[in-house]
Write a structure and sequence with these properties.
Length: 201
């Protein structure tokens, strides 16, 4: 057969994130993919709602990587914790994590996890959002300190890892995409990647 007559192979897939949590989740799908770091300023805009921030940043990350890899299908994602309309980002330090968990104690916190799939060559732009409602138990200072020393979740929005010991801080989780709280909603990701032409499974 003439090689020119062969159907084209699937486009390369790139995860526009260096998050180890998102990488581990995407690996579940068994697809080959590369990693690229998006260069995006994650500072919220004045008055920007948590949901809008997550959606904007997910798309910006995907578009930034896609601009450097125009033939690839690029996944961008972002998660913002929402406490009564206020965005809670990654604490980065123990002291900020303590302050976040004190604020979240006994409260309902919504984790907005946005995903964008972009391919410049095929003019593809897809977006979706998963909202996970969590209810935190009333937490005393000793519980907060023990948890943070044990798991050190300083790179997680909301200062807790639900896939680890952080589950002990919660009374309830309500969502329709179980991996969304970890950082990449795989049900939505699969739907979007199929729409982009990839075969899953």
């Amino acid at each position: 057969m003439n090689p020119a007559a062969l159907p084209p192979g699937p486009r390369p897939l790139i995860l526009g994130s260096t998050s180890p949590y998102r990488r581990a989740l995407l690996e579940r799908l068994g697809l080959p993919f590369d990693i690229a770091r998006p260069e995006v300023d994650e500072t919220p805009l004045p008055g920007e709602a948590p949901q809008a921030l997550a959606i904007r940043l997910a798309l910006a990350k995907a578009q930034d990587v896609a601009a450097r890899h125009p033939e690839a299908i690029v996944i961008g994602s972002d998660q913002v914790a929402d406490l009564n309309g206020q965005s809670l980002g990654k604490p980065h330090t123990h002291e900020r994590a303590v302050a976040q968990l004190r604020r979240m104690s006994g409260q309902t916190v919504v984790f907005h996890t946005a995903i964008a799939v972009v391919c410049q060559a095929s003019h593809l732009v897809l977006q979706d959002l998963a909202a996970v409602r969590t209810r935190f138990r009333p937490l005393d200072a000793a519980e907060i300190e023990r948890y943070l020393r044990a798991e050190q979740p300083y790179d997680c929005a909301g200062s807790a890892k639900s896939e680890g010991l952080g589950i002990s801080l919660l009374d309830a989780i309500d969502n329709d995409d179980p991996t969304a709280l970890i950082g990449l909603p795989l049900i939505r990701t699969c739907r979007m990647l199929r729409a982009a032409g990839l075969a899953i499974p």
